[in-house]
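Obj: model holo form, ligand = 6-phosphogluconic acid.
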Amino acid sequence: MDQPHLQLSGRVVVAPDPDSLFQQLGQKLMATAQGAVGRRGVFHLALSGGLTPRPFYESLATDSRYSGLPWPQTHLWMVDERLVPEDDNRSNMRMIRRSLVDHVSLVADHVHPVPVLADDPAAQYEKQLCDVWGQADTPRLDFILLGMGDDAHTASLFPASPALAVNDRWVVRTDGPHVTPPPRVTMTYRLVNVAREIAVLVTGAGKAVTLGRVDQQLRRGGADPHRLPITGVQPTDGHLTWYLDRAAAGS
Ligand code: 6PG
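Output (holo structure tokens):
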């Protein structure tokens, strides 16, 4: 069901409940993956952490509807990561391994955790991206799954944080008074916005107020990433789709 009452940038998909929303998102993900492998022989996927996508990741691993996902040709990247060891409960990689990676046929070398223990994890992650794409090429992700926090942050791009303004890096470290601890590493707008498909997954009544603020801001005339970082997500040459359940959409 596409719902016109929210005026968000891009396409808006609203489903009655999270399960049917996950199915629509999963079908889109699979079609994008198959298309990427058909055209370029590889699928670059970037996933977010947080609570919302966990059951979606579990369904990708267990539901036979998604058996057509080309895992052996997929590279998995982290949209953002908390700077904690991988055995810490707050690690996004830990959650994504447990819910998805451990259960599908991804090639070990194609799973790209942020090197959280390195001296400069952001620079090393950026180097990994550039090495995989080749220095001359823009690292263009095929599909990036974002979430949205109550404060409208996305990835680890938090309101009023310096990372919002970085436009000469693909990945940065982010910390300080505006960032929910622990310190993090995040993809920048520059990297997010060149992706071919950007999906923003938001569920639950708790997010309805924030979505309302985003909607109002966009109606008033445009993005305000400083206050509402999710509004800085604007594909340069790709597609943006919001996946909302009815509770989040307030309908
Ligand atoms: C993270 C995420 C972050 C997340 C939002 C929403 O590591 O925290 O990548 O951007 O998507 O905070 O999180 P919830 O799904 O838990 O509400």
